[in-house]
Amino acid sequence: MVMTLKIDVGVASLSKYKEEVCGDTVEIVKTEQSTTIVFSDGLGSGIKASILSILTTKIASGLLKRNVSLEQVFETIADTLPTCKVRNLAYSTLSILRLYPDGRCHLIEYDNPSLLWIRKKKPLSIKRKKRQIAGKETMEAQFFIEPGDLLVMISDGVINAGVGGLFRLGLGYEGVINSVLDWAIEYDDSQPVAERVTDVVDACYLGRPGDDSTSIIITARNPRTAILLTGPPANPKHDQDLVSKFLEYKNVRRIICGGATGNLVAREMGREIKTNLKYEDPSVPPTATIKGIDLVTEGILTLNKCLTKLKNIDQDKKTEPLFDGATLLCQSLMKADRIIFLVGTAVNPAHEEFMNSLQLLTRMEVIKRLQTLLTEMDKEVVIEKY
Amino acid sequence: MIVPVKVCAGTSCHLLGNQEIIDVLENMPAQYQNCIMVGFTSCFGACEQGPCVLVSDKLIYQATPEKVIQAIKEELRSKK
User: Fold this and answer.
1) φ/ψ of residue B16, rounded to 5
2) How far A70 CA sits from the closest chain B CA (Å)?
3) Is A371 in the B-facing interface, judged by CB distances under 8 Å?
4) Chain mean pLDDT for chain A
5) Domains of chain A
6) What is the model's pLDDT at position A2?
7) CATH class for domain B3-79?
């Protein structure tokens, strides 16, 4: 595998009007070898549909975690799940999409709307083949994606949004593609795009969805690297080397945590450091700006606060919409796939007294704890001491 | 005439009470509001003597609101 693609998945669902649960279920299984998205739409709506789609995706994701092949997973589900005796229909649909870090994709679809593939704002066609698996007629495809590609998985509630009302034939594939493209320009994350698409669907249904509707936005991108410099080096003779090291990386997000560190970098770069005029949060000193650096914050207090925020982050991995240094730092770390910490070990004697009385963690201790947390979030973390 | 006032927003100065000075500066009587330009700056490198405030080109160590107001008044007087 040469290319190492990162896959971002955003999921948003709407329940049918007056239903409390959504009959569509999505499971994402991430391993080192692949990212697999399992999507099921239970027949009808409400709790029955929800239970069946949950059952389907849970069985599939459970098997996928044990490295069972897609075909075998599909076969097991097709054999296990009941079929409606009256309508001779399976009780739930199923799509499984597996994406590998080299861009290879393997898709099996059963009864769901077709997966959409968008490259450079234009839809691409996916060559599908019919394949019988456990007596069910499925569509199968193998294709390669590139960085910047968008994949859109939707339930029939999205395609049919507004049918017989706002639109004669519903939102349709073209309407979905246009909505996705409109929002994808605005956001560089999958989740808000998925949420905006369901907003469009809700509007098409005039706020009373006629069916459970789910949109899954999958984006492929190159890994994002952030480099964070904090603390001056123990030996001031190494100032220049440390700043050179900090600046030598290309296509990375550069972050500085520390007033003295900011001054040091500004001096070595021959640039001005400007401290922002507002305390966004009274407990976090304001950020600063240096031309060419993405984020400049204060050091110890911001790092400690960032650690607390990162520990308390919710399941959706969303930070509060705040603009203080700690929140901005938290967001930058969350967005990165690989983080390089360059940690200067010079000690500021004036800080030592506060550190104990305020129970603040030392710079190195915060960085180590951040490393543990970020590693748990599947990020690669490197620490270099100076 | 405008007197620039820069309050250090570094770790030590923040913990040593720079906010008290900021509050006072932001709520100065109207006659002073138009004569000062308040801003923040990163570490002056005098962390043990914080909070530090730079009034025009005069650096005040262990600054208090009173010391800062006094320095602003002196600066305004000298430039009249």
Assistant:
1) -85, 5
2) 54
3) no
4) 90
5) 6-221 (3.60.40.10), 225-385 (no CATH)
6) 55
7) alpha beta
Is residue A27 a contact partner of residue A61, using CB atoms and an 8 Å limit? yes
Q: Please report, for chain B, the start and end positions of each structural domain, with discontinuous segments joined by +.
A: 3-79
Taking residues A305-332, report their average pLDDT. Answer: 85
pLDDT at A316: 60
Note whether A298 contacts B9, CB cutoff 8 Å.
Answer: yes
Instruction: State how far the Cα of A109 lies from the Cα of A68, in Å rounded to an integer.
Output: 17
Using a CB-CB cut-off of 8 Å, the residues of chain A touching B47 are: 348, 350-351
The beta-carbon neighbor of B43 closest among A263, A279, A282 is A263
pLDDT band at A1 (very low <50, low <70, confident <90, very high): very low
Cβ contact A279–B47 (<8 Å): no
Q: Tell me which residue of A24, A49, A22, A29 sits closest to A39, measured CA to CA.
A: A24
- For residue range B39-73, what is the model confidence (pLDDT) as tens digits? 998 888 888 898 999 999 999 999 999 999 999 99
Whether residue A286 and residue B11 make contact (CB cut-off 8 A), yes or no, is no
B19 with A279: Cβ contact below 8 A: yes
- pLDDT-based confidence at A282, cuts 50/70/90? confident
